[in-house]
Amino acid sequence: MASPQQINNLQNSFQTAVNLGGSPGQVSTSPTQSFMSSIPRRMSVSKQTKALKPFSTGDIKILLLENVNETAVEIFNGQGYQVEYQKASLPEDELIEKIKDVHAVGIRSKTRLTEKVLKHAKNLVVIGCFCIGTNQVDLDYAAKMGVAVFNSPFSNSRSVAELIIAEIVSLARQLGDRSIELHTGTWNKVSNKCWEVRGKTLGIIGYGHIGAQLSVLAEAFGMHVLYYDVITIMALGTAKQVSTLDELLSKSDFVTCHVPATGETKNLLSAPQFAAMKDGSYVLNASRGTVIDIPALVQAIKSGKIAGTALDVYPNEPAKNGAGAFNDELNGWVSELVSLPNVILTPHIGGSTEEAQSAIGIEVATGLTKYINEGCSVGSVNFPEVALRGLDLDQENVVRVLYTHHNVPGVLKTVNNILSNHNIEKQFSDSQGEIAYLMTDISSVNQSDIKDIYDQLNATEYKISIRLLY
Ligand SMILES: NC(=O)C1=CN([C@@H]2O[C@H](COP(=O)(O)OP(=O)(O)OC[C@H]3O[C@@H](n4cnc5c(N)ncnc54)[C@H](O)[C@@H]3O)[C@@H](O)[C@H]2O)C=CC1
Ligand SMILES: O=C(O)CCC(=O)C(=O)O
């Protein structure tokens, strides 16, 4: 368990990154930043900058669903935002009601922010996915509304990799079954079809953050590692990339999936893929429930082709914890699956460790706060990444203009015409697909000018959203 001191340390390292103007995502990976963090303060190149705020931060309303970690709540409370906190996800109709007047929403993997839901979010500025996956959000639609989406790209990767290692050993030794038997009084000391994992081959589908981390752990156990990915990725240790999924399937004793939910990964493993696997091999999935065709997996286990499976994710998952929530009504195959031998089922807990959750809470809450208070979109998954250096502490009458617009010619000219009575201190624009995001600091702005600037920008043809910070 992470101690309060460890959580404090994590918070401090994120704060250091924020002060240095780096993306939170760089904190644990960038050697430069860890070097910078160790420089005594008097030598630090960072300087204090003026805090920009949207307006009264007490007006910022944040809806946090799905038991987002307390570290995030502390960060938002520290900013003076109004936080509404719920442990579960919400059914669509309640979500639509709640989302109507909030500026930010924080979710994990279950809340579906579809176009239908987002259409009602009139004040929404930013979405935080307190997890890795972002498939639960309509990212394109959010961008078209001018809403940036942030996630935590790797804070729970290690936790998932460790769970998979535990499950590989558990499947090889039929631990789930032995434990259930003994819980009900049955002593069943057997070695038939129980194996060491040393010398066996692990096939990893998707060699990203989790797949690569797992590769290192598996080799430390003496396993051979093969991986298949749609892009060429440098192998860690002595792992080998194979060029086809079939090659991986035919050579592996354990096959584990670590791909995102996309059209291409839907039913990536189905009847033909199970048929291509070694007799008596094992299947693991802690990515998304759509990646494995579970009825086909049930048949492959029944026929003896597959010797066991460990699943953490399902096509339909209950909205909240509770007895009886995982049933045939939710997924038609549940009773059949649970009756099979050597099947380990976990309730989407791959990333559910104290370490991962507190780090995710800090990382995503920091990203959201920087976007709300400064307009910085670095690290967003659906938005052009734009940031400007901070203002000097003594700078007066400066306004930061955040202008999201359709990516068409002539917009910059129109906007700069409107801003031309003021000095443009600095300006940065970037585009991604159909949308563009422009950030400008203007000086010599009287309070009385602000409404006029806003109204003029608001009337421009290609505007998607505007925010003014001062
Ligand atoms: N069970 C849990 O609690 C958790 C589940 N996840 C899931 O795991 C997934 C993977 O996470 P990361 O490793 O962080 O993602 P990542 O983005 O770092 O890596 C994914 C890899 O899959 C590859 N890929 C994409 N499509 C592919 C295909 N059709 N065939 C083969 N490879 C393909 C990509 O090129 C990439 O290398 C996430 O998208 C998320 O859905 C993530 C964290 C926790
Ligand atoms: O812990 C969660 O709620 C979701 C974990 C997950 O699936 C992810 O990070 O993508």
TrEMBL record:
Its EC number is 1.1.1.399, 1.1.1.95. InterPro entries: ACT-like_dom_sf, ACT_dom, Ado_hCys_hydrolase_NAD-bd, D-2-hydroxyacid_DH, D-isomer_2_OHA_DH_cat_dom, D-isomer_DH_CS, D-isomer_DH_CS1, D-isomer_DH_NAD-bd. GO terms for biological process: L-serine biosynthetic process. Residues 400-470 form the ACT domain. Keywords: Amino-acid biosynthesis, NAD, Oxidoreductase, Phosphoprotein, Serine biosynthesis. It comes from the Eukaryota. Residues 18-40 are annotated as: Disordered. SMART domains: AdoHcyase_NAD. One of its GO terms (molecular function) is NAD binding. It catalyses: (R)-2-hydroxyglutarate + NAD(+) = 2-oxoglutarate + NADH + H(+); (2R)-3-phosphoglycerate + NAD(+) = 3-phosphooxypyruvate + NADH + H(+). Pathway: Amino-acid biosynthesis; L-serine biosynthesis; L-serine from 3-phospho-D-glycerate: step 1/3. Residues 25-37 have a biased composition (Polar residues). PANTHER family: D-ISOMER SPECIFIC 2-HYDROXYACID DEHYDROGENASE FAMILY PROTEIN (AFU_ORTHOLOGUE AFUA_6G10090) (PTHR42789). Catalyzes the reversible oxidation of 3-phospho-D-glycerate to 3-phosphonooxypyruvate, the first step of the phosphorylated L-serine biosynthesis pathway. Also catalyzes the reversible oxidation of 2-hydroxyglutarate to 2-oxoglutarate. Belongs to the D-isomer specific 2-hydroxyacid dehydrogenase family. This is 2-oxoglutarate reductase. It comes from Lachancea nothofagi CBS 11611.
